[in-house]
């Protein structure tokens, strides 16, 4: 007796062409392409109008894709940045508060001599001398943008005195260029009745000649000491 032979179904049977499925596929593909094109146009328009916002959105999107660990890292960085900003704001407030507090005058009777002072302290010492000798409205204006004036004061006679302070070593003489810079602003800008350049050093001969021509009073090391001791006249006399 012969056994019946089983028929094996063909492996590569061709699928029947389905017009409906094909049509739906191409319609869906067209919709996707249209949406993508519309999105691309919107992004391009946004880039032209507001590139900063687009950049922010891209950064946010990239940060989101990096995952939870990356987001936590960004949060920690943001907290550190906020803490740094808070610290900077606190320091700025302290600086403003310090600027609002008037600087304490250095006594005219300087211990250790003027050579022991910083340039800022020397200006304060000169201002103290002016106050000691009856000047009013004494103000220290030295610093960046001072245009040559370090101390302003009004004498008992009502004269406006403009002083420039040069805390130089004794070997460093005040030259004519120093006098020229001061002479260019003391009268025209600061409207001085009396212009004084006082130094812990000495003046060169050209500097003295220029000062005499312009009417600037020069107070050298010996003159400053005499003013301090009261054995010499005030510069405005």
From TrEMBL:
<feature type="transmembrane region" description="Helical">
    <location>
        <begin position="23"/>
        <end position="44"/>
    </location>
</feature>
<dbReference type="Pfam" id="PF04471">
    <property type="entry name" value="Mrr_cat"/>
</dbReference>
<keyword id="KW-0812">Transmembrane</keyword>
<feature type="domain" description="Restriction endonuclease type IV Mrr">
    <location>
        <begin position="115"/>
        <end position="227"/>
    </location>
</feature>
<keyword id="KW-1133">Transmembrane helix</keyword>
<dbReference type="InterPro" id="IPR011335">
    <property type="entry name" value="Restrct_endonuc-II-like"/>
</dbReference>
<dbReference type="InterPro" id="IPR052906">
    <property type="entry name" value="Type_IV_Methyl-Rstrct_Enzyme"/>
</dbReference>
<protein>
    <recommendedName>
        <fullName>Restriction endonuclease type IV Mrr domain-containing protein</fullName>
    </recommendedName>
</protein>
<dbReference type="GO" id="GO:0015666">
    <property type="term" value="F:restriction endodeoxyribonuclease activity"/>
</dbReference>
<dbReference type="GO" id="GO:0009307">
    <property type="term" value="P:DNA restriction-modification system"/>
</dbReference>
<keyword id="KW-0472">Membrane</keyword>
<dbReference type="InterPro" id="IPR007560">
    <property type="entry name" value="Restrct_endonuc_IV_Mrr"/>
</dbReference>
<dbReference type="GO" id="GO:0003677">
    <property type="term" value="F:DNA binding"/>
</dbReference>
<dbReference type="InterPro" id="IPR011856">
    <property type="entry name" value="tRNA_endonuc-like_dom_sf"/>
</dbReference>
<feature type="transmembrane region" description="Helical">
    <location>
        <begin position="50"/>
        <end position="68"/>
    </location>
</feature>
């Amino acid at each position: 007796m012969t056994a019946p032979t089983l028929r094996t179904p063909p492996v590569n049977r061709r699928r029947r062409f389905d017009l409906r499925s094909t049509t739906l596929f191409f319609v869906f593909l067209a919709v996707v392409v249209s949406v993508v094109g519309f999105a691309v146009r919107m992004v391009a328009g946004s880039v032209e109008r507001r590139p900063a916002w687009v950049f922010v959105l891209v950064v946010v999107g990239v940060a989101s894709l990096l995952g939870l660990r990356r987001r936590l890292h960004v949060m920690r960085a943001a907290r550190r940045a906020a803490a740094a900003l808070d610290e900077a704001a606190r320091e700025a407030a302290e600086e403003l508060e310090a600027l609002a507090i008037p600087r304490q005058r250095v006594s005219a009777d300087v211990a250790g001599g003027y050579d022991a002072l910083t340039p800022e302290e020397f200006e304060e010492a000169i201002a103290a001398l002016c106050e000691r000798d009856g000047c009013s409205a004494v103000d220290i204006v030295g610093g960046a943008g001072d245009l040559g004036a370090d101390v302003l004061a009004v004498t008992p006679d009502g004269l406006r005195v403009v002083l420039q302070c040069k805390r130089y070593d004794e070997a460093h003489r005040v030259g004519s260029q120093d006098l020229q810079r001061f002479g260019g602003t003391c009268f025209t800008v600061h409207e001085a009745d009396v212009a004084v350049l006082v130094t812990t050093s000495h003046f060169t001969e050209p500097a003295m000649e220029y000062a005499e021509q312009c009417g600037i009073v020069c107070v050298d090391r010996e003159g400053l000491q005499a003013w301090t001791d009261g054995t010499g006249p005030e510069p405005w006399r």
